Amino acid sequence: MSKRRIAGFLFCITAVCSVIYSCQSENDLNYARYYTNGKKLYDLHCQNCHGSDGQGLGKLIPPLTDTTFLKKHKSEIACWIKHGVSDSMLVNNVLYASEMPANPTLPDIDIAALVTYITNTFGNNRGLYDVNNAATDLKPCIISK
């Protein structure tokens, strides 16, 4: 292939990629950012207990794979991440009584990224949960603590 054809081919690939990228909505781009950052934060803060597959640890640590439970409690997840859990909870008909440690230094944006990742992985599909959602959901748990 001549240099001219290679350059033309690379230009076409670049143009196609630019068109595809520009067709994504701001919401799609934000979702991708939150999800990617949430994965990194999950690996750092949550994976040791909940596992890389979200299955939890026997009857000690609850799984993150119960889509019904996560859908029902989506507005509470931010509080659990930030302030921990000391109450028992019933997940998939199993009672879990272990405490979950708090992450009080995580900013709202990181909480939002974690919730986006958790609620869109392990069989879940709840969509973008942004920093505004986190701020709103964290207000009641700050008052109750």
TrEMBL record:
The keyword Cytoplasm does not apply. It comes from the Bacteria. Keywords: Heme, Iron, Metal-binding. GO terms for molecular function: electron transfer activity; heme binding; metal ion binding. InterPro entries: Cyt_c-like_dom, Cyt_c-like_dom_sf, Cytochrome_c-type_DH. Residues 33-122 form the Cytochrome c domain. This is Cbb3-type cytochrome c oxidase subunit III.
